[in-house]
Amino acid sequence: MGRIERLAEDVKGCREYDVEKAREQMSLRINSEAPNFVAQTTKGEIDFHQFIGDGWAILFSHPKDFTPVCTTELGYMAKLEPEFTKRNCKLIGLSVDPVTRHGEWAQDIEETQGYKVNYPMIGDPELKVAKLYNMLPEDAGETSEGRTAANNATVRTVFVVGPDKKIKLMLVYPMTTGRNFDEILRVLDSMQLTASHKVATPVNWKNGDDVIIVPSVSDEEAKATYPGGFKTLKPYLRVVAQPK
Question: Which of 69, 84, 196, 202 is the most exposed place for a label (fewest CB within 10 A)?
Fold first, then answer.
């Protein structure tokens, strides 16, 4: 059995995939469809695409329960969850350990970080979701038993998925560096804005700052869209107040 065929076999427990679908999964990119799966979570069984619904979702993964950096991250995301909810964005975590251990870990998180984890945490004891999202190689085995954070090191990824079920952002972090979830919130604001308006956001942009009119918009269209005017720094670099 070749590599592609084995990958197709590995993900059958998440969803029926043919060889071509498995081939696509091997190289997830921006605007790839986020692979769907059915899995057990701390909130019961979920179908990932149904969970997303008509909103946005952030899937962020962890190499192991009871790991120090991830404990701080899960607590901070619990703190930020109301901000994501305002933006019609759901949070969902993943660890390769079983759901039963997630519940125990959640108690430590609340005790040490001061915030209760209310979003679902996926249990992935057979490593199926981690493999489906290219976080572990196909030869990683079929169980989380005996695995350590060190050999799960690649399971430190953030995926932002849009209402169209396509991946809008991917970030992979080393185990020793805590993720900046304020940045994820900032990027979500940018992506939601640019999905609704023909603009892009400049370096270090924050919600409320000026934005850039994309080059595909002519000056005539820009004048009609922004009657209050805009600033032309270069023909390709036109700055305007953030659209409402």
Answer: 196
Q: Is the pLDDT of residue 2 over 60?
A: no
Please name each of the domains of the chain with its CATH number: 9-14+31-177 (3.40.30.10), 197-240 (3.30.1020.10)
- Sequence-distant contacts of 239-243: CB under 8 A, at least 24 apart: 239/202, 239/210, 239/211, 239/212, 239/213, 240/199, 240/210, 240/211, 240/212, 240/213, 241/210, 241/211, 242/193, 242/199, 242/207, 242/208, 242/209, 242/210, 242/211, 243/193, 243/196, 243/197, 243/199, 243/211
Considering only residues 144 and 194, tell me which one the structure prediction assigns the higher pLDDT.
Answer: 194
Q: Is 70 one of the annotated active-site residues of the chain? A: yes
Of 140, 185, 138, 137, residue with least CA distance to 158: 185
> pLDDT value at position 17?
43
* Sequential DSSP letters for 140-171: G-S--TT--TGGGTT--EEEEE-TTSBEEEEE
Q: How many CB atoms lie within 10 A of CB 128?
A: 21
Residue 20 has pLDDT above 60, yes or no: no
Q: What is the pLDDT of residue 6?
A: 53
Q: Around Cβ 147, how many Cβ atoms within 10 Å?
A: 19
Average pLDDT for 107-111: 98
The token duo for 180 is 């900046």
Active-site hit among 8, 11, 39, 70: 70
